[in-house]
Specification:
Length: 166
């Protein structure tokens, strides 16, 4: 006569396993969404005969792709219960996040066209107007909720009178 013994499984084991697969699946879905969304203009640009990219656009694509891959790896590490390695890599994630902000702002600023001024309006305050206009346009393009308005600075106004108001 053979006996079979059942090993009791705690009630929390199944939901925890399902959660691990959920987060893994969401990380893969995010990576696939990014790939599909940017395939024509970045990842498969040569296949689709996309326009040439500037070095800054390549850097932006590289850094943001690294972020998505980092997210995928970190999610997989936690789901695999390898949290010590996940925590050690977290420092690199902080560095990557700062790099993303810097490169993202630079890339969005580069996409805003330079304002054209006549020779009569060129002055020191004209450059502050150009900067404030670029800040306003990049804020609108990046989807900021509050509108940033730049005050108009004339050639006779002092640089301190030129400011950005919200």
């Amino acid at each position: 006569m053979s006996q079979t013994s059942a090993i009791p499984v705690p009630a929390v084991a199944q939901p925890a396993r399902e959660k691990r697969w959920f987060f893994r699946g969401m990380a893969v879905a995010a990576a696939l969404t990014v790939f599909v969304g940017f395939a024509r203009t970045y990842y498969l640009k040569d296949v689709f005969a996309g326009p040439p990219l500037t070095p800054l656009q390549h850097l932006h694509g590289f850094v943001f792709t690294a972020w998505i891959l980092f997210f995928l790896v970190q999610t997989w590490l936690v789901a695999s219960q390898r949290t010590p390695l996940h925590r050690r890599l977290g420092v690199a994630g902080g560095v990557l996040a700062v790099l993303m902000v810097v490169v993202g702002v630079a890339a969005s600023m580069a996409m805003v066209p330079e304002p054209q001024f006549s020779d009569a309006s060129r002055s020191d305050t004209g450059s502050s107007l150009a900067i404030s206009t670029r800040i306003r346009l990049s804020s609108i393009r990046s989807g900021c909720v509050e509108e940033v308005q730049a005050t108009r600075c004339g050639p006779r106004m002092s640089p301190t009178a030129c400011s950005i108001t919200r």
